[in-house]
Description:
This protein is of the alpha+beta class. The chain has two domains: 34-92; 95-159, no CATH class. Helix content is 40%, strand content 12%. The protein has three helices and four strands; from the N terminus they run H-H-E-E-E-H-E. A four-stranded mixed beta sheet has the order 3-2-1-4, with helices on one face. A hairpin with a 5-residue loop joins strand 2 (124-129) and strand 3 (135-139). The radius of gyration is 22 Å and the shape is elongated. The model has no long low-confidence stretch (mean pLDDT 81). Residues 1-31 are annotated as: Disordered.
Amino acid sequence: MPNYSDNAPQGYGGDWSRGAPLGRGTKAPEHRTAAELEAEFIRLSQRISVCLRLKEARPSEGYKARYWQEEADECKAERETIRALIKAAGERAAYSPKVTLQRIRLDSGGYDHCGAYWGHGQPLFWAATDDGELDATFRASNRDAAKAHVRTLIPAARFYR
């Protein structure tokens, strides 16, 4: 089972002599559904056709044609990334790990027990999976709201306790 202190931040910018770290990094799985990704794929395909039409409409203006070709190439690269994410989204639907969900207590100055500064506000929660796919800190009003937030990232998540 993961432990919050195992991945404690190491001071501001990784240097303890520069003071307390400001929070900690978050690692979370892609949370868009296959339907959302497919809609994005279609939008990018339409954008590519528009860019190529605009490029063809300006053959004598080299710099404008080059701009639209570069824009189309960027959209094609992003579309290939989306294509890979669509495949992964189908596999992720069956992903149902056990999640450690823990409330992190803050002292009166807004620091956790590892020395990271979080400030004041709603309660702070930390969620992590055994396989390391999720390691996130976030604020939520209560444990049920924190579980709901984790389920936006991993719909089939199960929780310890």
